Amino acid sequence: MNNSPLTAISPVDGRYHSKTKALQAYYSEYGLIRYRVLVEVEYFIALTAIPLPSLKDFPKEQTEALRDLYRNFSESDAIWIKDTEKTTNHDVKAVEYFLKEKMTQLGLERYLEFIHFGLTSQDINNTAVPLSLKEGIQEAYLPLLDELIAKIQELENEWKDIPMLARTHGQAASPTRLGKELKVFRERLDIQRETLIAVPFSAKFGGATGNFNAHHVAYPEIDWVSFSNHFVNEILGVHRSQTTTQIEHYDHTAALFDALKRINTILIDLDRDIWTYVSMDYFKQKLKAGEIGSSAMPHKVNPIDFENSEGNLGIANALYEHLAAKLPLSRLQRDLTDSTVLRTIGVPLAHSIIAFQSSLKGLGKLVLNEKAISNELENNWAVVAEAIQTVLRREGFEKPYEALKGLTRTHDKVTKESVHEFIESLPLSTELKEELKLIEPTSYLGIQLVGK
């Protein structure tokens, strides 16, 4: 079979390809190779800026031509590198040979051996990967997360004054407002977004075992630590870990995946709540001509967007959890397991993005069924018992909780009439009785928290 969205094994590149293709530039094999080329080119240019003695006469007018090697990097360039890798059996060495070939074409033969000078492959991988991770999250992930947060806030404000029965332990509880319940999720997401963007994208750059052995033996007079800090932090724009083995220790990367996982967990919580509200008829869903909810039951309009989102978030979290638990572990100065699992970082991000789009679609289809919400409040007058007994406590009434317990903990339905009869039976002033009768499920809502 030809490789296509129809024949792909992974749904990320198959069924959901149209939703995830924006990530290809960052997390595909092509993307990884391009970022390696970028790092190698910028490293060479940084060496010319010291300058190393052998690079003093490097023609600076060729600098932008070198940058064009990654700015204009093509799929055919990536294929050249992959074909070379079949011979070298080493992916980063193939990138080095590609750049030497291109530099030869530019007439820069005398400088070839300063491509990948003093480096090990992980100096390239452990800068290329965090750079791709940073740019993919900033340019593809965060805009969609922000769109989802904005949509929740839009609904939060639209429904801020809608009284709603709350449920704790699945049972009727003190009334709330629909907008406030959405604000709970939006606020949680805001906080975790701040946590996410505070995590550094950490990189390793320090030679074969992190000590700049090759750099120092060749040019002991150069402060290679300062050079590398400037190169990684300022030129590449990621954060250089100071003391490492052959590889990045990935502690910050693990924190990043944990933060991504928490965001997904909050959205699973949201998906399940909205799904439940749909099942309770609090929401209808907008209909679309031609769509089918069930192959057997024509009446059904299923909340499939929230189900799709929940499923994809779960898959993403399983992978985030493995990445966060595995990456900080490496035998002695390095083993290859980090390289293997790092190739999958685009997969959980893709499942997250699929989920965000599904949640957005689902939220956009919701139609408030205010009548159903109002009816449920009216059918649960028992929830004003908390209010009545609290006012009675204020007045020094003896054992108010126990008195209300007798009214409400029965199998008889509590109604407006039965509550008012109970109030009338109490030895209270007329003014206090009238105050208590004003308490209703639709008005016993506490403080308006949306907008505060």
In short:
The protein has 452 residues and is mainly α.
The CATH homologous superfamily of the largest domain corresponds to Fumarase/aspartase (Central domain)
Measured by DSSP, the beta-strand proportion falls in 5-15%
Give the spatial strand order of the biggest sheet. 1-2
Quaternary: single chain
CATH architecture of the largest domain: Up-down Bundle
CATH class of the largest domain: Mainly Alpha
Which fold does the CATH topology of the largest domain refer to? Fumarase C, Chain A, domain 2
Number of domains: 3
Question: Which residues form runs of ≥5 with pLDDT under 50?
Answer: 294-298
First-last Cα distance: 58 Å
Main sheet characteristics: 2 strands, antiparallel
Percent helix, as a range, is 55-70%
Would you tell me the structural class of the helices and strands? mainly alpha
Give the averaged pLDDT, no decimals: 94
**Shape type:** elongated
Please give the count of helices: 19
* CA-based gyration radius: 31 Å
What's the order of the H and E elements? HHHHHHHEEHEHHEHEHHHEHHHHH
* Structure summary, number of beta strands: 6
